[in-house]
Structures
1.
Amino acid sequence: MTERLTLASLARLDPSMRPSIDPRSVSVGVVHLGLGAFHRAHQAVYTEAAMANTGDTGWGICGVTQRSRSVVDALAPQDCLYSVLERQDGSSRVSVVGAVRQVLFAREDSDELLVRLSQPTTRVVTLTVTEKGYRHDPATGRLRRDDPEVAADAAGRVPATVVGQLGRGLQRRYRTGGAPLAVVSCDNLPGNGRLLGRLVEDFLTMLPAEDTRGLAEWVAGNVTFPCTMVDRIVPASTDQDRADAAGMLGLDDHAVVVAEPFSQWVIEDRFPAARPAWEEGGAVLTGDVEPYEAMKLRLLNGSHSALAYLGSLAGHEFISDAIRAEGYEAYVHALMDKDVTPTLQVPFGFDLDAYKTDLRTRFANQALRHSTVQVAMDGTQKLPQRLLPVIRQRLAAGDEPRLACLAVAGWMRFVAAGRSDDGRPLPLDDPLAQLLRDRVGEAGSARAVADALLGVEEVFGPDLGRDPAFRSLVTEALADVTRHGAAETVRAATR
Ligand code: CS2
């Protein structure tokens, strides 16, 4: 049996594969909520590079998992070490990250989590909890106070939602000295920091007034919620990935993460206390993240969702297969150029054409095996910021955003059919799955399905679902996908 990756076995690794800092010299300065693969392949890597390049090793990460303890179980016996396996067609490389120094399971380690959130040595909290983890109403950007989990957190149980954990953590921090703090959202939501700040504020108003006296004012003056744009494609890792990493490392790693070589992080520079020198680790610190965020969400994530639905319907298991299928790259190209680009404000000096070309190359990376079904997950939480703002803006300009509407039709077909055009089951994994199923019910025709789903205000808001131009574009596209299949409809879209 191969030896496990641990601090003790690190010495056996080739130096090129070892962490760029000595993990033993690192102390915790960051709490991260949502210790999934994305964080480990992204912010943790930047944080380690920042520590290595400055010698300031006070920024180790206490990573917190929310829903299952499997990451804790994999990382704890490995002294929190794990490897990042970078995969690119024709080459791959592996290296161990040592920036994560503690792992907690929120449900079982709630006291320790509150201590970490309130300690003055913690100066930064970061988050990757996916869109649904914010428990907000996408239409208003406010906390869903009627969400039973949110209500239960506000009523005083050990907090189980992320906003509840932050609210309780800030409350304790205020009471125990009130050291300033930055809370950095790293999820794919527009204005993610501002959104999170509002949600925390909403949560605090749900607590009894006698428990929160002075708290909101302290938060307003001492806690910042910078916005960020994060980018790296990180598919779920498989047994094959673990076997390949073990072969390269000569050590067993149960917590391998797989990623493309590309990585980008743009951070709004609003920190009330010290922070890791992430710019020394390759991140961009800037005054305004929004243009980058919109570009990334609409070009990358919007195209990703389009490929996920229209690709899985056509029987493609991976994003790279979908973009390589006849007509799909032309479709994505046209979606980016015709529908998305006119809605973007391009930062000065930014080469948008190169960015778009690189995106298509990144999607085509066959070594990555990024499943269409993984990207298709949680569509109700993703479409509102990936595709619908583009559609709204183009319709307002008097244009017909046909290509973006075809992607929405792809989602509708995915939801309603529950199987690909060649009959393979496609799982509907979405927090609103039951509502979607109830709405679609027995609807048979494309028109009936479109009517049913356009009425879901959680996705389309009160406006778009009623917009006659949008309704007719989506209904027509859905009729085509239903009648001719996704592959043929995509081919025809740019003919
Ligand atoms: C993807 C993203 O799963 C998805 O919805 O679109 O996770 C995507 O891979 C990342 O945002 C890339 O930075």
Note: The pocket of D-mannonic acid is lined by residues 188, 231-233, 300-301, 304, 374-375, 382 (CB under 6 Å).
2.
Amino acid sequence: MSPHTLMTIGQQFERRSWAEPWKIKMVEPLNIISREDREKALINAGFNTFLLRSEDVYIDLLTDSGTGAMSDRQWAGMMLGDEAYAGSRNFYHLEAAVQDFYGYSYVVPTHQGRGAEHLISQAAIKPGQFVPGNMYFTTTRLHQELAGGIFVDVIIDEAHDPQILHPFKGNIDLEKLESLIKREGAEKIAYVSVAGTVNMAGGQPVSMANIKALREMTDKNGIKLYLDATRMVENAFFIQERESGYADKPIAEILKEFCSFTDGAWMSAKKDNLVNIGGWLAVNDRELFEELRNLVVVYEGLHTYGGLAGRDMEAMAIGIAESVHDEHIFSRIGQVRYLGELLTTWGIPIVHPVGGHAIFLDAKAFYPHLKQIEFPAQTLAAELYLDSGIRSMERGIASAGRNAETGDHNYPKLELTRLTIPRRVYTQAHMDVVAESVRAAFENRGKTRGLKMVYEPKYLRFFQARFERI
Ligand code: F0G
């Protein structure tokens, strides 16, 4: 299967072309500084794009988290904030939206995704228990480990290879999971942690067949199944596109069906839910909910605001409803795919198939002369910034951190630089500029030197680590 056998948005709609289902009402000027100033800014930032000032960035593809544009309806909703300490009207709107669109019974708001990850990890993991998951996510795994859990990667092998074309590279390998359950015993498994889509694998989806089979296996063994729903709407798009029987089902229906196979979910609403800040945790079990609702007041805020303003919850409730519109999600993923197709045409190594939220440049293939400990993906992020002021993010050895027991670096198979596309923010012309900058870095690749890490914080080191050129 070549990357082009996957259907494009144009084919889906049987149109020659497609366009965003919105028009621009307000604009924010972009700033571009000189190459000389970029060199200075990069050195000041220790070659870490997280340490750049945003005013020194031209096109910001650091993340799709909280960087989206809200709609006029969401902004109107901001004016309807009920800033009561307790029982805010906006909380009930949010609760109803999560119940309606995701289908869970009980909802706890949190300030963002990691707030929810903290609560579920504390409530559902006993020290020494295993938490199998479809590849790790940085904050998710850290909260599982801080709660005493031992993370085990049970994603299919294909996910670790940037070139293998598999329509559902986010799937859990059921044999890996079964052998873990057999080896350790079901009581040693806290829960299965499944993310749709899988961020670190390149935004790769999980199939409906996989989640159904997982439900069967976990039911048989009395194990809970929790979902990282951060980009689950995008996951639903891939099911609609690629899984038989779903082509004619609306995104909203697919989303709800998928969630129905899980016992609960945590959410970084800064992604799919189209807000700049917010998150939630939702479960079906009343007793667990009571515990989570009690914990949230310790760490986030009262159970009807969870660290958010009323207006934030209103924007989230509206964003949830907008996020499942088929036209929205087609154009969202279509824009990512447009960039991916351009780069592929130019022979630039990226993760295939192109996923939901970002293009992942394969830094190992970009810089075959660099050892992984010379931080190829971090190097590529620095080079792109130097070339054009575009900001991307390392997703390789720096992000993977150290082994909790041995203290050695984790050496992930994937050494990637992520160009993450914010929702409803940039145009296709921006994508062209980005693609050309990547091409320039690619043409220069032979001359590029790697980096060494000169400062390393204890937790989630990639955010604040500093580097120097070798
Ligand atoms: N789960 C996934 C899959 C994520 O991608 C993120 C955040 C979180 C949980 C945590 O949510 O940031 O709201 O606390 N991902 C961002 C990113 C940071 O850039 O990929 P948060």
Note: Residues 326-345 form the longest helix (20 residues).
3.
Amino acid sequence: MTIKIIGTGSAVPEQVVTNDDLAKIVDTNDEWIRTRTGIEERRIASAGSGTSHMATEAAKKALAQAGISAKDLDIIIFATSTPDCCFPSGACEVQAAIGADKAVAFDISAACSGFIFALHTVHSFFKAGIYQTGLVIGADTLSKIIDWQDRSTCVLFGDGAGAAVVRAEEHGTLHMTMGSDGSKASALACTARTTDSFLTGKKPELGYMTMDGQEVFKFAVKTVPEAIRTVLSEGGTHIDEIKYFVLHQANYRIFESIAKRLKISMEKFPTNLERFGNTSGATIPILLDEMNREGKLERGDKIVLAGFGAGLTWGATLLEW
Ligand code: COA
């Protein structure tokens, strides 16, 4: 039993924030950001346009493209580390907004690997014969947990949402791998925001993202090629058979290093991070949606998705479009 993506959608905030805009609030410049990351601009959500709002827009577009009703969905899994509420889950908010009354809906937290983890979880339900039609969402509003005084992180991220409608299929390819290493959690972290209780007497704390950029860089360029090799080997697929490697959009230099290690041309690594930055759980489905709508993907194409992020977590999927 495998998975077929039958519709994709994405949504990003209207507000464009360029590298020059950021140079007005922190000591940075366009040249540094472009050369170190490949990012030129990003989208930042305004008040009232949070994670679930963007996710709902992306989900509606994915359903329209799939040509199915929200009422046909059995399961919605929403990957996010920046939900609008502690509860209800973002998945339940999307479920209500699109009217998917039959679907079970829940969130998972795997940071930038979230979409891959969510896709694999839906696949497992399909394989077990429990559900047949699902909606997988990756959406984040990282702008609300960024320290806008910290130039080493604030230039990297943006807000956005991507979604894919998936269906169980008897035939086709899907091989997957996932991993986690909680012992390296401090390399990329954001503590929860708390008001504490009347007993602790502590003041409210606003958790902000912190990152050891070089540690994350080293982790990504080691782990992602290994994960890609694993799914190719399990799928009995030669690397040359892969049309595209759809990677988590974090840094152009990470792509270059991975391409070099795998001895693959950069042409096989589509990117959109120059326009959106790192939108965490949303990067892979937003890019997939763009490629799909531009007609770059044809039925039968073999592609590899690969993500990595806080946790630390990582994962790769070999799938047939
Ligand atoms: N603008 C200008 N200078 C900056 C800067 C910015 N936005 N951010 C950091 N710097 C400075 C540093 O202070 C440092 O200055 P110093 O040499 O005077 O101390 C210098 O630039 C080099 O910093 P360094 O951290 O060594 O740069 P780097 O080459 O490692 O690039 C990252 C930094 C963050 C771009 C890079 O490490 C990276 O991309 N890591 C992966 C991060 C990632 O993808 N995270 C998300 C994963 S899901």
Note: The longest strand covers residues 159-169.
4.
Amino acid sequence: MCGIFGYVGTKNASPILFNGLKTLEYRGYDSAGIFIPEAGVLKTVGVVDGLLEHIGSNFFGTSGISHTRWATHGVPSKENAHPHGDCSSELFIVHNGIVENYQELRDRLTKKGHTIVSDTDSEVLAHIVEEHFLRTKSLERAVTSALKEVRGTYGIAVLSKSDPNTIVVARMGSPIVLGIGDGEYFVSSDASAVLGYTKQVIYLNDGECATLTPKGYRIFTLRHKKRTRRPTDIDWDIEEVKKGGYEYFMLKEIMEAPDVLADSARGRLVSEKGMARLGGLEDVKGKLKHVKRIVITGCGSAYYAGLVGRSMLEAYTGIPVEAELASELRYRSVVFDKGTAVLAISQSGETADTLAAIRETKRHGLLTLGIVNVVDSTIARETDAGVYNHAGPEIGVASTKAFVSQLEVLALLTLFLGRMHGMSKKDGAELARGIARLPKKMDEVLKEAGRIKRIAKKYSKYNNFLFLGRTYNFPIAFEGALKLKEVSYIHAEGYGAGEMKHGPIAMIDKSFPTVAIVPKDSVYEKMISNIEEVKARDGKVFALASRGDKKIEKLVDDVVYVPKTHEALTPILMTVPLQLFAYYVGVMRGYNVDRPRNLAKSVTVE
Ligand code: M6R
């Protein structure tokens, strides 16, 4: 995720900015840059250390802004790296977040003669500020007026050459922290980067702006109403701050699910028409109208997301869809018939098996698509078209927020393809409404964390688990079992609940608990019968059910309720309690859940 760091004071800003960027490295990034009004702009692709060779004694000034970029719009490159300047390089900005209406703004600015050199959504901010700056001659006024034109999220810092001692910052949806020093002030996207200099911080709220100079700081709203805020003292160490106060990145990333759901759908839902806008697929829209078959592929959690996608796409597009493990698909020949599109799902975009499957299917002339989180990764580059997740970097090895975003992007893809292939406007509008409501519902799911922790404590002593689900939640049974295996090393098996009687039921006894995923959906009664079968054999059952389901309470040993949603979206809400369950069991068993043994974040070997 992008990182912002800025400084204004009396010392040489360049080593301070460089150190700030180094501290922000853990957030994940692909390029970086610094602007010091008296010295100019430096940018690098790759690691922050790439800036070092240019930071000589003549790269000097007492203020500056800097940025680590994690690509969302446009590939990692020097042009796309921040800081971004206006037409005359008078002012520069660094930005975190997503400008939803950037295309609209870009078109308007280009028509007026602005030269926009990057592919980013962020650069337009520099040019709108420029327009207002030319008129108002005040950077503060220019920033607030410009932001009124922006739809989306931002944390920004702006600095101009004509007034190098004033940094203007603002926040809407992306964090901004002010560091209050003695005659020096800092701005950052998280407190870890300012901790080396001061423990006094102020977290800006949405809709707040601030001006920092060596003489002090001022906080105000977008409408220029003064805000009085007292700095708070942080006594966390840097590691704690990086994890946002959570013990592990895994928990932090699970807790980010509501934001991830908002970010992955941002600017993509056309709710009133019951449609989705997926810019990355525009170029292949013609081909997608005539597609005869879809093969979804991936590994591990990405493959399970693909299985959910299969159910969604088949239900609403009428196109035959299959999901195949990439490690198997690469060696199959039968699927390579004309009119087939292959959709690869990968968080990292570098998984060797998924990449090989894509290369193999491409060799047969098939249309290849990607759902990838890491922008410009190999799979993103090698597929014909695709959709980015916008989930931000995932540091914990176990996929949590990335998996949630994969499911949501598949729901968006279902809308996109469905409306081309006979999905009614009414069905589209219903699904779109369901997607739009997900972040709020996920907030409610996360409120159950305490209860899930208590349940995890009760179950953490068992050494075997069965996870059961059906239809949309059949793959979530696999994913729940995988998560538990990965972070707690407990033996767990995922099964389609209807399959239980064909074998696994033999294992059930009082020492072999079952986790059942039972939303109030079209197979609810079937799931209830399967749970009865487990109970009849003395098996303990922990169920995830829909809020308001009184019947289940009487049947199972433990239950966690999740809000009701569109049937196709139930896997999204059901998966997070299972992530939390695995997390708590893993931690209770004393493991480092961020770095499970024998696992790598990105599996680049076959
Ligand atoms: O980066 P990818 O999404 O391609 O990775 C695929 C799998 O390796 C990954 O999902 C793996 O199963 C995770 N450890 C699951 O938590």
Note: The chain has three domains: 3-234, 242-436, 444-591.
